[in-house]
């Protein structure tokens, strides 16, 4: 809308949008360089861990600051869930159900197979990968699904449902396997009390304030979420990386990388073949492969920092997994392009 006052022409849309332009530009840059920024953060954690360790020791209302930061991230994720996408996913409830089952079954099966060779693997590696296996689908899977022309609604529903079910799943696995999760001061119940309400509250706030206002604030939300993610990774990596750098063992690191790649790549391959076997449509299959193959490693790193601090390699395995899943996602996308399943334009 444009009004003329004397010699001046006022364009209201320009005036309103101008303050958001720097944030929008920053949000795009954070999206483009997030993996590179994570590398910088990990380098800082390895050689300048002091501030990160201070962050890890802080508590608010008897809850670790890292858990509160995780809950804010999940609140922002809930704020980004569109009701339209959830309604679309309800029409594909069968695919979402398949995704939820495979999201846990595929990685947990691989971890169980690796568990048959405990003496060949570094101490803490299986604990880290086991925690990753129980994590919900990653929000980054949506971006890869969009790029590969998949069904985004399935990914959104998978992220929401798997995040809500994660505390329940952690509790069940702990009881069945007598795992040590939750014995380091913060229980699974306490974690669940922060995780589940955060996501649901975000979705509720979006409904109350309206789609338009949330969309207008999207750049600010992206910047906030990315900033918290980087700070969380720095704080949690500060507990593990200095020990690894101080006692660097190339062969251990090689075994670590190869094992993580084997698990991550195995999940992508296994989920693809299972979707083919179940006769899932091409678009839905791509969505499920990304949704199943990509885990919320940010959450895993927070929980590992609370529960597995005595196993530095567990945290390092999660860090390696963070980068590996993006490499395999890129490889799967390129494979779809070459086979003609997805057009390049």
Automatic annotation (TrEMBL):
<keyword id="KW-0472">Membrane</keyword>
<keyword id="KW-1133">Transmembrane helix</keyword>
<keyword id="KW-0812">Transmembrane</keyword>
<feature type="transmembrane region" description="Helical">
    <location>
        <begin position="221"/>
        <end position="241"/>
    </location>
</feature>
<feature type="transmembrane region" description="Helical">
    <location>
        <begin position="253"/>
        <end position="275"/>
    </location>
</feature>
<feature type="transmembrane region" description="Helical">
    <location>
        <begin position="93"/>
        <end position="117"/>
    </location>
</feature>
<feature type="transmembrane region" description="Helical">
    <location>
        <begin position="123"/>
        <end position="145"/>
    </location>
</feature>
<dbReference type="Pfam" id="PF13593">
    <property type="entry name" value="SBF_like"/>
</dbReference>
<feature type="transmembrane region" description="Helical">
    <location>
        <begin position="191"/>
        <end position="209"/>
    </location>
</feature>
<dbReference type="InterPro" id="IPR004710">
    <property type="entry name" value="Bilac:Na_transpt"/>
</dbReference>
<dbReference type="InterPro" id="IPR038770">
    <property type="entry name" value="Na+/solute_symporter_sf"/>
</dbReference>
<feature type="transmembrane region" description="Helical">
    <location>
        <begin position="60"/>
        <end position="81"/>
    </location>
</feature>
<feature type="transmembrane region" description="Helical">
    <location>
        <begin position="30"/>
        <end position="48"/>
    </location>
</feature>
<feature type="transmembrane region" description="Helical">
    <location>
        <begin position="152"/>
        <end position="171"/>
    </location>
</feature>
<feature type="transmembrane region" description="Helical">
    <location>
        <begin position="313"/>
        <end position="332"/>
    </location>
</feature>
<protein>
    <recommendedName>
        <fullName>Bile acid:sodium symporter</fullName>
    </recommendedName>
</protein>
<dbReference type="InterPro" id="IPR016833">
    <property type="entry name" value="Put_Na-Bile_cotransptr"/>
</dbReference>
<feature type="transmembrane region" description="Helical">
    <location>
        <begin position="287"/>
        <end position="307"/>
    </location>
</feature>
């Amino acid at each position: 809308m444009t009004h003329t006052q004397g010699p001046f022409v006022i364009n209201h849309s320009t005036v309103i949008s101008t303050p958001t332009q720097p944030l929008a530009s920053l949000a795009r840059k954070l999206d483009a360089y997030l993996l590179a920024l994570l590398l910088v953060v990990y380098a800082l954690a390895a050689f300048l861990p002091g501030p990160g360790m201070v962050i890890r020791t802080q508590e608010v209302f008897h809850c670790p600051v890292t858990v509160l930061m995780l809950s804010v991230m999940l609140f922002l994720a809930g704020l980004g869930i569109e009701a339209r996408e959830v309604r679309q996913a309800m029409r594909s409830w069968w695919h979402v159900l398949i995704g939820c089952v495979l999201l846990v079954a595929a990685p947990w099966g691989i971890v169980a197979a690796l568990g048959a060779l405990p003496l060949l693997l570094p101490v803490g590696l299986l604990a880290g990968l086991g925690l990753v296996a129980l994590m919900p689908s990653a929000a980054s899977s949506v971006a890869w699904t969009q790029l590969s022309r998949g069904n985004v609604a399935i990914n959104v529903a998978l992220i929401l449902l798997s995040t809500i079910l994660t505390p329940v799943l952690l509790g069940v696995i702990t009881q069945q396997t007598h795992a040590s999760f939750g014995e380091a001061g913060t229980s699974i119940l306490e974690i669940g009390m922060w995780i589940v309400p955060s996501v649901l509250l975000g979705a509720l706030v979006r409904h109350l304030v309206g789609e338009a206002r949330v969309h207008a604030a999207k750049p600010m939300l992206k910047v906030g979420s990315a900033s918290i993610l980087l700070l969380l990774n720095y704080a949690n990596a500060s507990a593990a990386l200095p020990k690894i750098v101080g006692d660097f063992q190339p062969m251990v690191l090689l075994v670590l990388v190869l094992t993580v790649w084997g698990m991550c790549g195995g999940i992508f391959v296994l989920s693809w073949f299972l979707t083919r076997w179940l006769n899932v449509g091409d678009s839905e299959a791509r969505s499920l492969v990304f949704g199943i193959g990509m885990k919320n490693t940010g959450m895993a790193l927070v929980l590992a920092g609370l529960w597995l601090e005595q196993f530095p390699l567990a945290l390092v395995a999660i860090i390696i997994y963070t980068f590996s899943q993006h490499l395999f996602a890129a490889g799967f996308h390129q494979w779809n392009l070459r086979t003609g399943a997805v057009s390049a334009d």
